[in-house]
């Protein structure tokens, strides 16, 4: 019996493009070629234009008149401004998570992220740390269960996908970042909202300070 292949939808193509941006397969400022994507996904160029329109609206891409569609590039000032918003929103998410009665599955998810970040630090594995870092923050937002936080954070986290810790990031700095996570995790699991919010806000401020210190070529 032949298995039918699921149809390729605009949403699945858009998610594929976003995932490539997040992992750095498409670099900031890179032009995306409509005909190439149409051939790759085996769809018409009209479908790719729909995807471009969607992702321009979501902030992943930008349209430059008479030139085409490019992966959006954010300035340092834009990212720092978003970081100030993240400080409040991520702090609130941590507070709400700590106020929640966590299910065994939520405890396991949060503890699992922390254990894998601990292991990544011990193994000096920046790539694995980056992956767990983003998933850790997403899990806290999921536990907080406030869709307004999710909606706003979706936008202000976007440029950080392309500013993950560089492979040259020092082991001491990565360990310091993870110590922040350990404090946040402990506060949430202990049900201490004040400590969870304060620790998360301090953590995001430290991340913003890291962005402020990055070399200019990270934004070119």
TrEMBL record:
<keyword id="KW-0805">Transcription regulation</keyword>
<dbReference type="InterPro" id="IPR036390">
    <property type="entry name" value="WH_DNA-bd_sf"/>
</dbReference>
<dbReference type="InterPro" id="IPR008920">
    <property type="entry name" value="TF_FadR/GntR_C"/>
</dbReference>
<dbReference type="Pfam" id="PF00392">
    <property type="entry name" value="GntR"/>
</dbReference>
<dbReference type="InterPro" id="IPR036388">
    <property type="entry name" value="WH-like_DNA-bd_sf"/>
</dbReference>
<feature type="domain" description="HTH gntR-type">
    <location>
        <begin position="7"/>
        <end position="74"/>
    </location>
</feature>
<keyword id="KW-0238">DNA-binding</keyword>
<dbReference type="InterPro" id="IPR000524">
    <property type="entry name" value="Tscrpt_reg_HTH_GntR"/>
</dbReference>
<dbReference type="Pfam" id="PF07729">
    <property type="entry name" value="FCD"/>
</dbReference>
<keyword id="KW-0804">Transcription</keyword>
<dbReference type="InterPro" id="IPR011711">
    <property type="entry name" value="GntR_C"/>
</dbReference>
<protein>
    <submittedName>
        <fullName>GntR family transcriptional regulator</fullName>
    </submittedName>
</protein>
């Amino acid at each position: 019996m032949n298995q039918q292949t699921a149809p390729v939808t605009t949403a699945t193509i858009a998610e594929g493009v976003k995932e490539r941006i997040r992992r750095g397969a498409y670099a900031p400022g890179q032009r995306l070629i409509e005909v190439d994507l149409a051939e790759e996904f085996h769809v018409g160029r009209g479908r790719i234009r729909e995807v471009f329109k969607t992702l321009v609206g979501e902030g992943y891409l930008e349209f430059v008149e008479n030139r085409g569609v490019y992966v959006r590039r954010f300035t340092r000032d834009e990212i720092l401004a978003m970081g100030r918003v993240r400080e409040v929103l991520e702090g609130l998410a941590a507070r709400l998570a700590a106020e929640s009665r966590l299910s065994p599955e939520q405890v396991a998810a949060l503890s699992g992220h922390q254990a894998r970040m601990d292991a990544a630090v011990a193994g000096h594995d920046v790539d694995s740390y980056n992956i767990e870092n983003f998933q850790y923050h997403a899990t806290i937002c999921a536990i907080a269960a406030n869709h307004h936080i999710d909606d706003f954070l979706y936008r202000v986290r976007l440029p950080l996908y392309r500013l993950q810790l560089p492979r040259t990031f020092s082991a001491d700095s990565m360990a310091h970042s993870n110590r922040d996570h350990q404090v946040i995790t402990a506060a949430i699991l202990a049900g201490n909202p004040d400590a969870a919010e304060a620790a998360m806000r301090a953590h995001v401020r430290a991340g913003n300070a890291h962005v402020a210190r990055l070399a200019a070529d990270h934004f070119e």
